[in-house]
Amino acid sequence: MSTILAKNTVTKLDTRLGVAVGFLAIITFFVFTTLPIARLFSFNKSTNLNLSVRWTVENISGSAIGKPVTAWPINSSGVNNINSPFGPRLKASSNFNYDFHRGIDIVQQAGASVKAIASGKVYGVYNADDSTSPYFIDGGNTVVIEHTLPNGKFILFHGKQYTKYYSHYLHLQSYNVVKDQIVAQGTIIGRVGHTGTTELNHLHLEIRVATPCSYEFQENNPERFCSRVFGTDANGNYLHYDPHINPLRVLNYTDTYRPSVSVVGDKPLKIKISQDRRELDINEISVYGIAIGTKIVNFDERAGIDLNNLDSALQDNILIEPERFNSSTAKYEINFTFNNLNSGQISEIIVKDIWGNGVKLRK
User: Fold this and answer.
1) How far is CA 344 from CA 24, 42, 54, 292, in A?
2) In what helix (H) or strand (E) does residue 182 lie, and over which residues does it extend?
3) CA-based nearest residue to 302, from 100, 155, 84
4) Contact between residue 26 and residue 19 where contact means Cβ atoms under 8 Å apart
5) Is it true that the peptide bond before 137 is cis, omega within 30 degrees of 0?
6) Strand, helix or coil at 185?
């Protein structure tokens, strides 16, 4: 009797097990054939995306045609020595308040040699104590060099090719060049310091296209020659642009790593961009939806940014929130919150670096 009961028990268990396995197979088949793979696994190519939304990701490629190739102004420097990148940042010397940085800061010990990044002519030398200096008080001792690019090289800016640019070297401890002096690439023009409104020994390097004059100077001095280099509008009025561009547009570095893009909020739409610190060349984010068209923020040309309110984190109802960064930070990260949009209104997100390389996300 016990043998018969045991056999019946095994038979029932086998039957139940067979039913369970069959049921599990049906469920597995249903899941894999009805749900997109991108929502099943966290190790697909969209790992950084909000997995509640189906996005496809593709790489996009730009072009570095015409790029000037210049030297770094401090020996052994490079992207890894940048303490503060171009564009949105939290300014350490201002209690980490938001600031749009129109140059890059290269950390180095006081007294280190600062060299001309390319051959050119010294446009101006400005002493930290000179109240008439356009860099007073913030910039400290400053040297400005005018450069003319050789044939075939140019800087694309607001749809036009320019062959003249100006390199600006700020916070110098001292300088040893004079106005109109001709310098070769690598000529020592000064020493690293912390003159002006800074307590950190570093070089603040700016690159300005076509004119040495800032947007603010152009607006306040429209009669000056440096305020009339960008042509006129349809009504004959001189165009004024903010000429600062990311110095990596002319400095020699390896462009390898594409930015990572994450949709981290739905209502409102929030996007995080993350980039390896070995590049620091993020330049543009745009979102597109049929009902809302395209909204864009571009750092080099300041599209979507109010030039009269440059240091505001809120631009055209988009909150720009960079995370803290210094020379030891592994990644440069920025959050963009589109306050009047939700992810359901967006069908495409594009992020580009200064050369047009980047990623495109589509639903």
Assistant:
1) 34, 22, 11, 11
2) strand 182-183
3) 100
4) no
5) yes
6) coil
Q: How many angstroms separate the CA atoms of 277 and 256, rounded?
A: 11
- Nearest CA to 333 among 260, 228, 251? 260
d(CA 209, CA 223): 19
Q: Which fold has domain 79-249?
A: Glucose Permease (Domain IIA) (2.70.70)
Backbone angles phi, psi at 225, to 5 degrees: -60, -40
- Gap between the Cα atoms of 99 and 149, Å rounded: 31
**pLDDT tens digit sequence for 130-185:** 988 889 889 999 999 999 999 999 999 999 999 999 999 999 999 999 999 999 99
Distance, in Å, from the CA atom of 239 to the CA atom of 161, rounded to the nearest integer, reads 16
Q: What is the CATH number of domain 56-62+256-362?
A: 2.60.40
CA distances from 287 to 70, 260, 338, 342 (A): 34, 15, 10, 11
Contact 244, 102 (CB under 8 A): yes
- The CA distance from 18 to 1, in Å, is 26
Q: Report residue 280 as tokens.
A: 């620091």
pTM for the predicted model, two decimal places: 0.85
